[in-house]
Specification:
Length: 203
């Protein structure tokens, strides 16, 4: 029976990760949105952490974000995927995976070394964020190490890379502004950033 169960899991493993995992994640996102927007439920995160117990923010952030970096890294070595194929053509799926990992390297390690927050993150929220990043990392890593593509000069690939770096810049700029605000306020309370895209969000 156990052997049959393992064979069944192995047979449908790819179908599960390639189809059902996105469906489940999107469904959970919709449910959480409805609960928070209309039912008044607030995730006990940041200012909503009423228990005031948990891990320090930098440690919690490192723990919850790093699976999205390490899981794709593991899959790259496990599946033996390389940047260049036998014809020395670039596997653009690996380029996209590198960009994904670059983002999460920044979020997991560089950002956590820069923040000086004295807040704590609830254990449950930290655990749920860890699970999300683990599943997200596996989902992205699974696809990009399973399929090989050569779209280096295709318009959709170039546009996607351009959009990524625009978002990456906005992310870094926002981090800089928030960190500067915290330093100016000596870590007391929440401050609203001003200028650039923050004005659009506030409007």
């Amino acid at each position: 029976m156990i052997r049959d169960a393992l064979h069944l899991i192995k047979t449908h493993w790819n179908d599960f990760w390639e189809y059902w995992t996105p469906v489940v994640m999107i469904s959970i996102g919709i449910i959480v949105f409805i609960l928070e927007a209309f039912a008044g439920m607030k995730a006990e995160y940041g200012r909503y952490n009423k228990k005031k117990s948990g891990l320090s923010a930098p440690i919690a952030w490192l723990i919850q974000e790093c699976p999205a970096f390490f899981v794709p890294l593991f899959l790259m070595f496990y599946n033996g995927i390389q940047l260049f194929d036998s014809s020395n053509r670039i596997n653009t799926n690996m380029v996209l995976l590198f960009l994904f990992m670059m983002h999460y390297f920044n979020r997991s390690f560089i950002y956590t070394m820069r923040i000086r927050s004295k807040n704590v993150v609830n254990y449950m929220e930290n655990f749920l964020a860890f699970i999300f990043c683990f599943v997200n990392g596996y989902q992205i890593g699974h696809y990009h190490t399973k399929f090989i593509r050569h779209d280096l000069f295709e318009w959709n690939f170039l546009l996607g890379v351009f959009i990524f770096f625009c978002g990456f810049y906005i992310n870094i700029d926002s981090d800089n502004r928030l960190i500067r605000l915290r330093k100016e306020s000596n870590g007391s309370g929440y401050k609203i950033p001003r200028g650039k895209l923050n004005k659009k969000k506030l409007d």
